Hints:
It contains four helices and no strands. By secondary structure, the chain is mainly alpha-helical.
Amino acid sequence: MATLAAFPAMMRRDRRREGLRLCRAAWLIGVSVREYRELEAGERVPDFATWERICELYGWPQSFASGRSQE
Length: 71
């Protein structure tokens, strides 16, 4: 299961997998290159709209909740 701590590595891995440069990935999700670098470094948490665009770009589910039930 993915955790928030894995988020920066996932962004970096998927950006490279898609063959995107930082500036192109930033443009596609609608943030500045500086903001994208901060997201990818784990220094910034995306707002909800940015999170939706990141999920759409990389094909991620919008929620990483586990399938386990709460007891």
